[in-house]
Amino acid sequence: MTPSRSPSDDEKPGLGPSRPRDLAIVAVVTAVIAWILVRYNYGDLPPLPLLAGLVLYVLAALEVVIAFIVRSRVDSRDVGRARGQLHPLTAARVLALAKASAILGALGTGVWAGLALFLWSQRDLAAADHDKPGAVLGLVGGLLLVGAALWLEYCCRAPDDPTDDNGGRHPGHA
Question: Which residues are listed as membrane-spanning (predicted)?
């Protein structure tokens, strides 16, 4: 009698593409923790500057620029060790940046979402009204960073990499 195998047994261990589901879980767990911390400590926090989440926008913009560069090099198959080409180690570093930024964006999204949820539950608190725009801007910045990081990660794929659309098989294989 052979033991039944689940479909996940055939998957190779290793580094795969970031899954939006995993990033959403990180964001939700972080939002719950942030909401709890803010709920019990809001009175001790300083006023929230409007541009507190600005760094997330800057990181997202940088990653979009890098994604355009990487995508053009990969599409033109200009990857290699020759001068002027995208070095494979640089591509690996860019991929590591994209994966780390996706996690950072999910964490930032969770923190800003937890803060925003708390602020919207405070109807009669003037300080909460003052902090709401900054929390919304931070939340949008976190979402933009996640989107930019996922796109940068996608741009790092080789043109003949297997995709999720065909079940992990190389194109042209049945």
Answer: 21-38, 50-70, 91-121, 133-152
